[in-house]
Amino acid sequence: MTDYLVDTLAGLPVTWQVFLMSMIPVTELRVSIPIGILLDMSPFAAFFWGVLGNLMPVIPVLTVLPFCYRWVCKISFLEKFLTGFVARCRKKGHQVEKYGALGLLFFVAVPLPGTGVWTGCFVAFLMGINFYYAVAAIFVGTILAGITVTLASVGVKTVFLSNLLFRVELLGLLLIVSILVWWGYRWWKQQR
């Protein structure tokens, strides 16, 4: 499937290839950033376009999921199963409500198969996490996943020894993410 996507998008500029591949649930950041770097894109540009493309479906998916759920529940044989499944998930979600958005952030931040923006949106819906908390957690988690994938693709040593501009940009980005995580944690702690 990934080979097919790469071949299909081959005629487009590299920026668009990375952007579009990162929007697709199968590839997301785990494939788009390394391919961008392999196609001679700078690591920062691959990170930027990969993360930007990966964040594009977040708000539409989180907005559309409740409507899709209600629509599918109109099918009688699926209604009982789905309502029971979502009710069980949300019941468990209320048991860990204090950690919901923070747990979602770490779930999205780990760049493994089955974790990412699309799955994070479904988890946020199933757990009944507030829309705004879910968006914030998924955004920060995606940035952290992008940093992880970029560093793994280029190699930590290569990044810090080769390009001064990239080091400054990366350190600035890490500082911004650290401030956002710290602010979110303090806010979460005050709410508890």
Structural overview:
By secondary structure, the protein is an all-alpha fold. It has one domain. It has helices spanning 2-8, 14-23, 28-38, 43-55, 58-72, 76-95, 100-109, 117-127, 131-154, 156-162, 164-191. The chain is flat, with a radius of gyration of 18 Å. The model has no long low-confidence stretch (mean pLDDT 79).
**Largest sheet geometry:** none
Please identify the structural class as seen in this structure: mainly alpha
Question: What is the CA-CA span between the terminal residues?
Answer: 44 Å
The number of distinct helices, counting runs of at least 4 residues, comes to: 11
Estimate the helix proportion, in percent.
Answer: over 70%
What count of structural domains? 1
Q: How many strands in all?
A: 0
Spell the H/E element sequence.
HHHHHHHHHHH
Q: What topology does this entry show?
A:
Blueprint: H1 2-8, H2 14-23, H3 28-38, H4 43-55, H5 58-72, H6 76-95, H7 100-109, H8 117-127, H9 131-154, H10 156-162, H11 164-191
Helix pairs in contact: 2-3, 2-4, 3-4, 3-9, 4-9, 5-8, 5-9, 7-8, 7-9, 8-9, 9-11
What descriptive keywords fit this protein?
mainly alpha; 192 residues
Give a short summary of the structure.
With 192 residues, the chain is an all-alpha fold.
